[in-house]
Structure formats: C-alpha cells, structure tokens
Amino acid sequence: MLAVFVNCVAVIVGSLIGILFAKKISDNMSEIIQTAAGVITVVLGLQMAFKFQNVIYLALSLFIGGIVGTALDLDGKILGIGNTIGKLLPKNSAANADVSSNSDNNSNANAAASTNFGYAFLNASCLFCVGAMAILGSFEAGISKNYTIIFTKSILDGFMAITFAASMGIGTMFSFVAIFVYQGLLTLLSTFLQPFVTEQMLAEITGVGGAMIMMIGINLLGLKKIKTANYLPGIIFVIIFVLLDPYFMQLKDFLLH
C-alpha cells in the first residue's frame, strides 16, 4: 500500500500548490489556465485513446456503458459525494463558494463551474483513476513490490493536480479518496486479478479511459457539458468483451467457414 499512499500525497501536494497559485491570479488568468488544462487533458486523452486494438470494443463499451451509467446516474451520485465532502469543510472555504453563473465573483459560467467542489472532485477522480498505469502499477506494487510505475504515475498526477486545482479548486485535492479506494483495492486483489490482465486488456482499457479523459478536457474547454462519470461502466464492458474475445473469434471462424 506504500505506493498508493505516495500517489495520494502527490495529488494532495500538487493540489495545494495549485490552490495557492490560483489565489494570486486574476479571473482572466484563471480562465487561461483552465483552457490550458483542457487542451492538455484532451491531448492526454487522445494519446491514450489511440492505444485501442479493437475499435468495435471501444465503440460498444462507450455506447452501452454510457446508457447504463446514465440509467444509474453515476455522474450525479459521484458529484453528490463530492458536494457532501465539500459541505463538511468550513463555510468560508473555496469549496463552498457561490457557483451560479450570475455570481459577481466569476467572469463566466466556466469560471463559476471551476469553483464547484463536486465538479472538481468528480473530474479529478476520473482523470487519476482511469488508465493502464493505475491498474498495472497497482498490480506490480501488490505482487512484486515494484513501485516504479505508481511512483511515475504519482509524479504525473502531482503536476496535473497543480493545473486542475488552479483551474477548478480544492475539490481536486480530495480526489485522493478515490485514488486510495480504487488503487488500494487493486493492490490488495492484485494476486487474484493478475492472470486476467493481458496486453490486450490493458490496451482496450486504456483506449476507453482515454476517451473519457477527452470528455473531461472538452468540459474544461466549455465546448460541451458531458457527464463523464456516466461512461465509467464502459471500463467494465470492455473488460467483458476482452474476456469473451476468444469465443468471438471462434464464432467468427465458424461463420466464415
């Protein structure tokens, strides 16, 4: 669990730096930072998304996962968790700032959304938890006590936390809760799960995760409001598709012959 704690600390420290930096800049500069964060996130998502091996699995996972997630309102539930945590903070905290689009403290709707604790918690949690590094790194740490991947991820997450916290607020820091639960469980279950994690599995999970990270970037850029967390079941569906892949291949050969 050492690697998980290091990852959590990196996000906390990075977030604190971002929050302190944000207090010293104007609303106009804050908007510039949020735009830069959006572009960086889209580029990161694109880089990950193109690692898929089967575009059909990617498409079906996003379609079916989005439908299931919307039916369950996962985005709303995770946002609610973030807002609940935010309400536990002092009343004068930035997490409880007015987030209405007519607020005198914000230049536009994007800046208003960036001060919302739940919004920051949700997007940062998705960013730091989807992707192959979280999975593979947790397995390496749990099975062979090799912390290299998670330590590398911690450095990357720390720098992204600076940017996210500067543009969205203190909710970014509390995404360490999601990291602790998610990567902690993967580390504890690593011995049992490792046989199922193939190169193809990691590639397809990375592809779906990259698509969701792109959604976060699109939100930050204000191009469209996407409820990213509603697509999280796509990770489960792509895992199922990969596990069933040998049977799909047998069915394909049978139909062709």
Tell me what the structure shows.
It is a single chain. The protein has 257 residues and is mainly α. The protein has one domain. The protein contains 13 helices and no strands. It has helices spanning 2-22, 27-49, 55-72, 74-87, 109-114, 117-129, 132-143, 148-168, 176-188, 190-193, 199-221, 233-243, 245-256. It is globular. Mean pLDDT is 83; it is low at 94-115.
Approximate helicity band: over 70%
Give the strand content: under 5%
| Main pleated sheet | none
Number of strands: 0
**N-to-C order of helices and strands:** HHHHHHHHHHHHH
Distance between the termini: 51 Å
Instruction: Please tell me what the overall shape is.
Output: globular
The oligomerization state is single chain
Sheet/helix structural class: mainly alpha
Instruction: List unreliable stretches of 5+ residues.
Output: 94-115
Overall structural domain count: 1
Which radius of gyration do the C-alpha atoms yield? 19 Å
Mean pLDDT: 83
Number of helices: 13
